[in-house]
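Title: Request for sanity check on Acyl dehydratase prediction

Description:
We are preparing a figure and want to confirm that the structure record we downloaded matches what your pipeline produces today. Could someone re-run it with the sequence below and paste the raw structure tokens into this thread? We only need the token string, no images.
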Amino acid sequence: MIQPLPAADALKPMSPLQVRQTREFIDNLASEAKPYWDMVEIGDQLSRDLLLSAELVILYADGVEDFNPWYEGWRMNSWSIDGESPFGGAIVPPLLVSHFVLSVQFDATRPFSIGSIHTFHDSEILAPIPVGATVRITTTAVDKFEKRERRYVRHGVTVTDVESGILYFKETRDILSL
């Protein structure tokens, strides 16, 4: 006899918050899903602040297996340490912030977009980001164009320090849309 699969809520570990967020995400999929092209206008801008904590850096560096001592702003049984790099204290892996751009680009308050594929990005690292900095990731829709009968939305991205305004990182991204 074939056993039925467990309901999503029965999977462990899932906290009540995770269950609620999963249900909201699934319900949103059934809502007014539209092609990304139709949801974005040139000039649309979104931004979010992100604390680049030692814990976040550890999770990222472990995940991509980039074990560089420059990123170590922590020590076992210590909350955080200054760390060491040629730039002074510990720094954030240069492309970590690029992974958070999509969480800014796709606005959770809008319906789910369908048929989106990240097809291009060009990153420019301008300055090292110290571990512990809070950055503002801003994405702006700068162009919509067609190429080989396919529709693309181009975004310009900046990552700046919330306190000092230092520009750390710039990126251009293209999203192919149905």
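Thanks, this matches our download. The longest strand covers residues 134-147.
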